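Good morning C.,

I know you're traveling, so I'll keep this short. The sequence:
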Amino acid sequence: MKYDGHSELVKAGPRRLQDAQELLEPPTLEPNRSDANYRHLCAAQYLAGYAVECVLKAYIILLLDQRSNQHFARWSQVISHFAKQPSGSNLSGAASHDLKELIDVSELEQELDSDEQMKRNWGICNKWDYNTRYRPDPMMNCARVAEFVDACRATSEWVRNRLPFH
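The tokens, ready to paste straight into the viewer:
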């Protein structure tokens, strides 16, 4: 896994948000192809959600590293750690991409809920599903995806500002 350590995840998030923002622009490659705009919107939505996933994983790695007697350098170590806990979260496979599960494990949800603007942003971006890039959404349009990207950017920045040491 290329993005397994907290430093790679912290760097990947802003890059994916930038990619998502660029994909909101009209396509230049095969612009007349019937699915050109839709392809770009799917990709923008996917990348924006992935950016939130990355920063939440980085936060969880650093939080566990700070709170335990173990050193957590990689996400794969976090998965193993929780798998050994009696009532631990399953963070392997598809669960590793579940933003609701990640915010729960990060213990940030209560703080997030106390900020009305962040609660609104989270309400938009937590609907993300890593399979979005494969499933057609007939309601997808540029305005909705731009709102989603903006909510993900705000959420990502909010989490980044809470990283234990970045």
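Safe travels,
E.
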